[in-house]
Specification:
The structure is a single chain. The chain is α/β, with parallel strands linked by helices. It has a single domain, classed as 5'-nuclease (Rossmann fold, 3-Layer(aba) Sandwich), CATH 3.40.50. The chain is built from six helices and five strands; from the N terminus they run βααβααβααββ. It has a five-stranded parallel sheet. The two termini are about 20 Å apart.
Length: about 130
């Protein structure tokens, strides 16, 4: 089954954290917004991971990268009011917008997402 990954799921996979194996198991059929790609790469580079190594890891992972489209921008903006009190960022809302567009469940490590009624299933990886 396909899933949309948020940055926390990608970081769990990339850093061999708890829940990372769950992400590894779905990478070949998973989708990631380019917004969340940028967020993930920035955090990994801050933690000392080589930018070139990350490019190789992502290009060979089987993960499908999806551009942030105008419809996603409107959907992410519309989600702000409903998600603000849970502290969801722009990147989080970009991920949710992609899941809504594709009609796919989300994988995240953020437990707060499970409390939201997003219109798509949310699976918490840890």
């Amino acid at each position: 089954m396909s899933h949309v990954l948020d940055a926390s799921a990608v970081l769990a996979w990339a850093q061999d954290e708890p829940g990372g194996q769950r992400v590894e198991n779905v990478l070949h059929a998973a989708y990631l917004s380019t917004v969340n790609l940028s967020e993930s790469v920035a955090k990994l580079v801050e933690r000392g991971v080589s930018y070139r190594a990350l490019q190789l890891d992502f290009s060979t992972s089987g993960l499908t990268l999806v551009g942030f489209e105008p419809g996603d921008a409107y959907a992410a903006a519309a989600l702000r009011a409903a998600t603000r009190r849970f502290g969801l960022s722009f990147g989080d809302r970009a991920c949710i917008a992609l899941a809504l567009r594709l009609g796919l469940p989300l994988l995240t490590s953020d437990r707060a997402w499970a409390k939201l009624h997003l219109g798509v299933p949310v699976e918490v990886i840890r």
